[in-house]
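re: that chain from earlier
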Amino acid sequence: MNRLFSNMGQKSPQEYPAVNIWEKSGSAVITAELPGIDPEKLDISVSGDTVAISGAAIQEPPAADGTYLRQERGIGSFKRNIQLPFQIDAQAVEARYEKGILAVVLPRAKEDLPKKIKIQ
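^ sequence. v structure.
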């Protein structure tokens, strides 16, 4: 019973990067906060209904004669897998990185779009 409540009040670890996801015109749009990340070091891959965003956050050293007073920014490798409620058209995915925000547009695969059935 003690173990059940031992983490009460503590923050659970947040997945990185933080994302917003919405649907627009038959596509999912994902925006991810990635400040200070070199876009050349980011990888985006798509398989079926899942997109993976991975990369590495590099730590900038303090000045030669400086020491950290506080160090809160995460460093190291990360990978975030995001499952969508539909299959993705991997050939039509677009991504851009601007001002620390990665935006990925993931169109729904044509074969996964709803089809109108004509009644005879």
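DSSP finds one helix and seven strands in the chain.
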